[in-house]
Amino acid sequence: MSSTFNLSTTQKQGLQLSLRLWLPLLQAPLQDLETIFKEHSFDNPFLEYKSSFESNYSSGEFIEDINLYEESLFDIVSAQIEAPLFPTPGSQKVANEILSYINTDGYFDGDTESIAEKCNVTKEFVESIRQRFAYLDPAGIGARDLVESFMFQLSQIPIDEELNLFTQKVIQNIKNIDKYHKHHRFEEATDLIQRFKSPPAVDYQEENSYIVPDFFVDVSNDITVTMNSSYYPDITIKDPFKSKNDELKSKLKEARDLVNLLELRKSTLYKLVLIIVEKQMSFFIGSELKPMTMAQVAEEIGFEESTISRAVSNKYIKCDRGIFSLKSFFTNAVSKNLSSSEIKNYIQNLIENEKNEEPLTDQDLVESVMKRYNMKMVRRTITKYRKLLDIPSSKERKKIYKVRS
């Protein structure tokens, strides 16, 4: 495998990582790096940066772009992980672990059991800490799904008990909301629900967002992995001050750390992508994804699993098959060398080609899967995969097909 980037670990060794600088820098999307370093350069007299795209701005446009900078979702939530909601170091540690598994929609997609094991606490304690996210902003953050997100958001609204209980009932049966239309407080409840954010982090998502790939993977006679360095700002350290002032010394250290951390981000992501490409080689040449977990990669790369989760957030690979998020390459094993992703793709294909007048039931699907892969599987697993794919049941699909015809 050839590459256009030389991996160096010298700066990683001996570097005292500042979580305040490192984790947000690692998690940030590629196109946000320029803005991040702009902000740091305003506060740090030793830090100079030059954007690869600076020549495209007039001075007026450049200032306007600076004024549009806003804190990230991660920054907003991280700042709230403190007393009184999280009064102890233990509760704050668990809360930060939970935060690392909150996706760009604002939903928690981690596993409480693995967090409990890592933090040496019970899974019940982890869940109790996650429930406290109901009182954080943006409202609904940290919920597992839309229904729980709406319940979190409802808990922040001061309303009378009757309306609160009725609205909870409506939310829990949101798919059958019309059944409550005769209730005397139905209009009030639906007015509340319509004001809820869906997804909870919608205000932190760009309306006209576009994907900037972090890496390009080319498959020909060899596989070439190339880093997209166009969006990395050029950072330099200037030291015009001879003062021994402690505050200036601290700023100089911070500036040096930022330069080192930017290089560490490059090397960490590059090593991570090399592992992904190596383990998912079959995918890049046209086959299915293989089982691969973040825990396995974390052990190989030498970081915590939560750090890997942050690293893959909002990062993308462009290859001949299209643009894919790094997160999409992680999939659990159903059996040896068979990933849940492959099963889901097979189910999706079956349903896309089913007869409209006789949609496949979950039992039909499980029988097809067992025959195709020569393995045993229970129907509830297939039902779970179908729901994760956001595919309605066979009865619901039959109704949809009738409406369309």
Into which percentage range does the β-strand content fall? 5-15%
- Please bin the fraction of helical residues: 40-55%
Tell me the Rg in angstroms.
24 Å
Given the structure, what is the number of helices? 18
Report the uncertain regions.
2-17, 54-70
State the separation between the terminal residues, measured CA to CA.
51 Å
Q: What oligomeric state is this?
A: single chain
Task: Characterise the protein shown here.
The chain is of the alpha/beta class. Among the domains are: 2-66 and 210-329, no CATH class; 333-404, Arc Repressor Mutant, subunit A (Orthogonal Bundle), CATH 1.10.10. Helices cover 48% and strands 8% of the residues. The chain is built from 18 helices and nine strands. It has helices at residues 19-27, 33-43, 59-67, 73-78, 89-100, 112-119, 123-131, 146-155, 161-172, 186-194, 246-279, 281-284, 294-301, 305-312, 340-352, 362-373, 379-388, 394-404; strands at 2-3, 47-50, 215-219, 223-227, 234-237, 316-319, 322-325, 333-335, 338-339. A five-stranded mixed beta sheet has the order 1-4-3-6-7, with helices on one face. The protein has a two-stranded antiparallel sheet with strand order 2-5. Strands 8-9 form a two-stranded antiparallel sheet. The N and C termini lie far apart (51 Å). Residues 2-17 and 54-70 have low confidence and may be disordered.
